[in-house]
Amino acid sequence: QNSTNPNCTAVPDTTYDYIVIGSGAGGIPIADRLSEAGHSVLLIEKGPPSSGRWNGTMKPAWLEGTNLTRFDVPGLFNQIWADPTGVNCEDLDVMAGCVLGGGTAVNSALWWKPHPSDWDVNFPAGWKNTDMQRLVEKVWQRIPGTAIPSKDGKLYLQQGFDTVSKGLEAAGFKYVVPNDHPDQKNHTYGRSTFFIENAERHGPLSTYLVSAAKRKNFHLMTNTNARRLIRTGGHITGVELECSKEGSVGPGFSGSIKVTPGTGRVVLSAGTFGSAKVLFRSGIGPADQLRIVNNSKIDGPTMIPSDQWINLPVGYNLNDHVGTDIQIAHPDVVFYDFYAAWDKPIASDTEQYLANRTGILAQVAPNLGPMFWQQIKGSDGIVRHLQWQARVEGKTNTSMTITQYVGTGTTSRGRMAITPVLSTRVSVAPYLREAADKEAVVQGIEYIRGVLGQIQNLTWIQPIANQTTTAFVNSIPATPGSRGSNHWIGSCTIGTDDGRTGGKAVVDLDTKVYGTDNLFVVDASIFPGMMTGNPSGVIITVAERAAEKILSLKN
Ligand SMILES: Cc1cc2nc3c(=O)[nH]c(=O)nc-3n(C[C@H](O)[C@H](O)[C@H](O)COP(=O)(O)OP(=O)(O)OC[C@H]3O[C@@H](n4cnc5c(N)ncnc54)[C@H](O)[C@@H]3O)c2cc1C
Questions:
Q1: Is Signal set as a keyword in this record (predicted)?
Q2: Reduced 3-state DSSP string for 71-105
Q3: CATH (domain of 314)
Q4: What residue's CA is closest to ligand 1, atom 45?
């Protein structure tokens, strides 16, 4: 044990066949699959436990004495915006979950089967729709999702859904069950699907992690930060670990942990920013970023020497769904104050939830839906997929905010960077840098203004009636704060064009980092381009594919 903190234990003198860094949408499934194949696997998570199932403790008073935390109850999912302390990643300048489960512990649990173009437009050979369909079905067998979270089979406070749906119907939008028809994403609408079961958060934390944890060859460390990789040339021999916040947040581990000599491997699943950061600190990335690490007080004196650096375009090709919020109001819409459910809940609602998992708190805050889709062909000939997400929240008690996301087909890209104190930041925001992306945003809004404008008694909050759509779109800054969707992808792109020799790719088609022989990246950072909907389903499917690829590699 660390002499200064009993919570900080020295790493065991054990070696592992696989060390997986990060327990999010990518990390948990890959750790499960690798351990299922009989390998010893260590999963390292820098954050604390989240869900009650994993001994998480963060909860409001009304959950005391239950096995539930803020991460489990759908009606509390938006609490991350009211109180992110101890939940969000403090080293990033955007929102992400740094707890067991990563984004899948804190997100809104929106759960979409990928559109075939998500693969065919974006991914390289071996990762196309024909390669991935089998795995999509495998993922959905484990995590089917539901559109009706409350256990009594009822949907609560649907006035917002009904109001907007009427307008969509009148304009000829077709109602679909989205995950029954993942390819029908044009002029369609439907209910949102969530990875919720028994009216609690489901997803990787209650499937893949459960099966992994039953195996003797699987090990989990929480509150433990992977500082950097230990490597000799392109061969990783271990990982330097440190207790998160020096052990003050809960029991963690520090010291150097080793992979099985000769055959052991390391998988980075620390997310778009986290994986890139570990690479930078390990001397892998563009020289400008490695020099920042080398000049830092924290890492500089002990960083791997520059003759060992591996020059790869880590941090480039950054993307996020570009979001644009419109807002309407209608007298029929009924608001529910989910934020108040934290400390001033309506007693009958908490009682109903606790007694039989029914009622409004079984539904995801802040009452989402409908979802609708459009496709727009840009002047550059590229089709862009638009997903619209409505929620009952806004300036008044009868308002709805409807966010337009531009997904598959976007061509704008940004960049992330590391700072001298070893935080990361979005150095070039990826939003609307290309004219055709902006055209799609404007055309989409223009069209939907017409559609919703037909709804009787509807009033516009934004854009206001006499504002042109172009002026409205131009008035919103292209920053993560105003446009961000928390769907970051792309800092460690997969591809055949080796980044060491001028290409864009950081990992090869087996997800192995170029220039290394036993280092892999499996998370949203490898995505070459943006998907249609919210990403966690696509990421988990990518992890399934990566497991197949990695397991079939001979050393
Ligand atoms: C508020 C919010 C709402 C969202 N809503 C939805 C939604 O409804 N539906 C949807 O599909 N997607 C949603 N997303 C996005 C989705 O959750 C993410 O895209 C997804 O979780 C990313 O997966 P990942 O594996 O790449 O990284 P993450 O899930 O972010 O996992 C990375 C993990 O690595 C850990 N880590 C990082 N660095 C280190 C290190 N050095 N050592 C050890 N551990 C480390 C982090 O703590 C984290 O647990 C949302 C995201 C947010 C933040």
A1: yes
A2: CCCHHHCCHHHHCCCCCECCCCCCCCECCCCCHHH
A3: 3.50.50.60
A4: 22
Distance between Cα 539 and ligand 1 center (Å): 10
Q: Name residue, tokens 């976007």.
A: 410
CATH code at position 338 = 3.30.410.10
- Tell me if 323 CB under 6 Å of ligand 1: no
Q: Is the pLDDT of residue 465 over 90?
A: no
- The mean of the pLDDT values for the chain is 97
Q: Compute the distance from residue 311 Cα to the ligand 1 centre, in Å.
A: 26
The answer on 288 and 240 residing in a single domain is yes
Please answer whether residues 40 and 297 qualify as being in contact, where contact means their C-beta atoms are separated by less than 8 angstroms: no
Q: Mean pLDDT over residues 186-197, rounded?
A: 97
Using the mean position of ligand 1's atoms as its centre, give its distance from the Cα of residue 331 in Å. 37
Same domain for 230 and 188: no
**Residue 332 shares a structural domain with residue 448:** yes
> How does residue 5 score in pLDDT terms, banded at 50, 70 and 90?
confident
- Whether 258 and 238 have beta carbons less than 8 Å apart is answered as yes
Neighbours of 42 (CB within 10 A): 28
- The pLDDT, as a whole number, for residue 247 is 87
What distance in angstroms lies between residue 535's CA and the mean position of ligand 1's atoms? 10
pLDDT at 250 over 80: yes
For ligand 1, say whether the CB of 110 is within 6 Å of any of its atoms. Answer: yes
**Residue 11 has which token pair?**
């790493």
The fraction of the chain above a pLDDT of 70, given in percent, is: 99
Instruction: Choose one of 440, 461, 483: the last residue of a domain.
Output: 483
**Domain span including residue 442:** 150-192+319-483
Ligand 1: nearest atom to the Cα of 224: 43
Q: What is the pLDDT of residue 6?
A: 83
Can you tell me the distance from the alpha carbon of 273 to that of 439, in angstroms, rounded to the nearest whole number?
29
Rounded distance between C-alpha atoms, residue 147 and residue 214, angstroms: 30
Top mutation candidate among 32, 405, 486 for ligand 1, by most atoms within 8 Å of CB: 486
Q: Quick check: 274 and 26 in contact, CB under 8 A?
A: no
Do residues 262 and 554 touch, judged by C-beta distance below 8 A? no
Cα separation, 402 vs 419, in Å, equals: 35
According to the model, what pLDDT value does residue 389 have?
Answer: 98
Buried b (16+ CB within 10 A) or exposed e, 65-89: eeebbbbbbbbbbbbbeeebeebbb
Q: Is the pLDDT of residue 280 over 50?
A: yes
The whole-number pLDDT of residue 555 equals 67
Q: Residue 248 — very low, low, confident or very high, per pLDDT cuts 50/70/90? A: confident
Please determine, for residue 241, whether its predicted confidence score (pLDDT) is greater than 70.
yes
372 and 428 in contact (C-beta within 8 Å)? no
Considering only CA atoms, which of 16, 6, 4, 11 is closest in space to residue 253?
Answer: 11
Q: Beta 265-268 vs 18-21: how paired, if at all?
A: parallel
Q: Is 202 a catalytic residue?
A: no
Predicted TM-score (pTM) above 0.95: yes
Rg (CA), the chain: 23
99 among annotated binding-site residues: yes
Torsional sign, CA 85, 91, 96, 100: negative
Residue 1 pLDDT level (bands cut at 50, 70, 90)? very low
